[in-house]
Amino acid sequence: FDVTHQSTELPSLLLELFPTARLTLSPSSSQVFEGDFVSLSCEEDDSSAGWTLRRNTTTETRTQCGADWGASAGSSCKISYVLPWDSGVYWCESREGATSQSINITVSGKMTVILQSPVLPVMEGENITLICRTQTSSSLPADFYKHGSLIIDRPTTAPAQAEDFDDVMAVTTEHHF
């Protein structure tokens, strides 16, 4: 009985039985503005698994891309003009019922300020950039807060480490629209 040989076969056997996919979002920001273009894609370990993009919103449950929203192209989905009711949880699902990680997308109105940040998960220690922006301005001078405490004063962007991003962050700006 060769334990070493058995342990190397197990992960590949599990991948065959339970194929995986990783959901990617472009642009890589969980907050977007009404009217933005969004592309979601299932990066697949096994293309034969037949991955489909699905979502839950406040008005729909487990709906498939192409049915009433988005344009499906294989294991990708493009939404050419997002609206507030496109806010929700998105994920990839195989024919067998396996699922990817989910991404929560929030669609904000045109006159709001958003914190543009990478879609989670990010790896611990990975450098990330946080940007405070409106739909008409790609970056604004802003104060960045974490748990109510000021961490960065008036930059246009805030470089951070991924482990800093695990906790709630907020942005304030004195710009009036």
What do we call the CATH homologous superfamily of the largest domain?
A: Immunoglobulins
Q: Describe the main β-sheet briefly.
A: 5 strands, mixed
Q: End-to-end distance, in Å?
A: 71 Å
Outline the low-pLDDT stretches: 1-8, 10-15, 161-169, 173-177
Q: The CATH topology of the largest domain is what? A: Immunoglobulin-like
Q: Estimate the strand proportion.
A: 35-45%
What CATH architecture label of the largest domain applies? Answer: Sandwich
Order of helices and strands: HEEEEEEEEEEEEEEE
Number of separate domains: 2
What is the oligomeric state here?
A: single chain
Account of the 3D structure:
- There is one protein chain.
- The protein is mostly beta strands.
- The model is unreliable at about 1-10, about 10-15, about 160-170 and about 175 (pLDDT under 50).
- The protein has two domains: about 20-110, Immunoglobulin-like, CATH 2.60.40.10; about 115-170, no CATH class.
- The termini are far apart.
- It has one helix spanning about 5-15; strands at about 20-25, 30-35, 40-45, 50-55, 65, 70-75, 75-80, 90-95, 105-110, 115, 125-135, 145, 150, 155-160, 170.
- InterPro entries: Ig-like_dom, Ig-like_dom_sf, Ig-like_fold, Ig_Fc_receptor.
- One of its GO terms (biological process) is cell surface receptor signaling pathway.
- This is Ig-like domain-containing protein.
